[in-house]
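Bug report

Summary: structure tokens for Tellurite resistance protein TerB differ between web form and batch submission.
Environment: batch mode, default settings.
Steps: 1) Submit the sequence below via batch. 2) Compare with the web form result.

Sequence submitted:
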Amino acid sequence: MENTAKTMNGLYENLGKLFYAVAISDGTVHNNEWEKVKELVKQDWLYLDDFTDRYGTDAANQIEIVFDVLMETTKSSKECFDAFKDFYKLHPHAFSEQIKTLTKKTAKAIASSFSGNNKSELIMLAKIDLLLD
């Protein structure tokens, strides 16, 4: 099945939720985690495909935008992970092997960006691995 711009925008929005779920899993989003998200979006995600959002900017920017918006809410790690999981189950075709690999790499980098991995982050990383395998 071919991916549409709508599906890919949804993918990036839900990746923002997933990466927020990783960062908030210990109860706090640390500045290092937010900086890591911005760094990896620019370094890895912007060059992945040619999809754009409704404003004509790279759809991968949705990762940062959604993450930033979530920092102003009281959404839990579980709520955000579950939203990502629901999207994944509806649109598995949107997740190429490259996207799965990059998702895991980004999640691990966020988790380890503030004083290594703690138990809640390790559990979240394991859930991501199980879902995407």
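Above is the batch result. After comparison, the two runs are identical; trailing whitespace caused the diff. The mean pLDDT is 93. The chain has six helices and no strands.
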